Amino acid sequence: MAADHFGTRLTNAIRGAGTPLCMGIDPHLSLMPALFGDVSDPGSPSTLRAIEDFTMACLEMATGHVAAIKPQAAFFEAQGPDGMHVLARLGRAAIDAGVLVIMDAKRNDIGSTNAAYAEAWIGHDAPFPSDALTVNAYLGLDTLAPLLARADNTGAGLFVLTRTSNPGAGDLQDLDCDGAAVFQHLAAGLAPLAAERVGELGLSSLGIVAGATWPDEARALRQTLPSAPFLVPGFGAQGAGPGQALAGLTTGPAGPEGGLVNSTRGLIFPAGAADARSAGDWRGAISDAIKASRAALRTV
Description:
This protein is an alpha/beta fold and 300 residues long. The protein has a single domain, classed as Alpha-Beta Barrel (TIM Barrel). It has helices at residues 6-17, 45-62, 73-77, 81-96, 111-121, 145-154, 170-173, 182-195, 215-224, 242-245, 265-268, 279-298; strands spanning 21-25, 68-71, 100-107, 132-135, 157-163, 176-177, 180-181, 206-210, 230-232, 250-252, 255-257, 259-263. The longest helix is centred in the last third of the chain and has 20 residues, at 279-298. The radius of gyration is 18 Å and the shape is globular.
């Protein structure tokens, strides 16, 4: 596999940062500190400036201290076309800073539509530049073909929704099908695709989303997908502790690796940040939150 292989770059990013921690960047208008400006009029120039200033400040705090960032496309899309321009600039700035970008856009469709999604969202030269994209395979494994082709050609990765962190995940994902849950069948179908894409450090470019709120399932998924990187939401504000978050990850030379543990509200909206009166106070609150999460993920 090429040196720009996503699994290899992900492992190096985790080892370089000394943590599998990933910062989710979701600009909730109701949670953004007043310090960044007026967000009372969604889609307005003042709101867009505040969102851009806030997300770029989050990126600055993340650089060198987390393994990746994960912007959630929906919060930018809600601001209209100019909001999507902010997302594109955030992705480009992160890549230029050497920070891995996991675009959380959960795209999928069929045929040529998926090829268009792939062109839009996957790779450093995409309109919305990324190192990896979250995708939905519940329309069928054949739908992954154009997404995988684009990822393979650009050294990028995919994270396939498999066992999500929400309370209702089991409504469909847990349904029994010939003695195994639907999500287990999906994992088994992904296993050969992941095995074909293993890089020089043993990690594939094809990964899965496995919520921290289901640690037993994550351990079982690791048995099915030994080389797949896991993207783990649910840590912190969603209720999962570090032990649960790390259940599906692997152990590397210096600690947990084999995937990313995402925290959003715990890192970008911690206590003390909302009421910060100065940029220095805000940076201090964010720095403390990052340090606390890093420490928690080291001590399990």
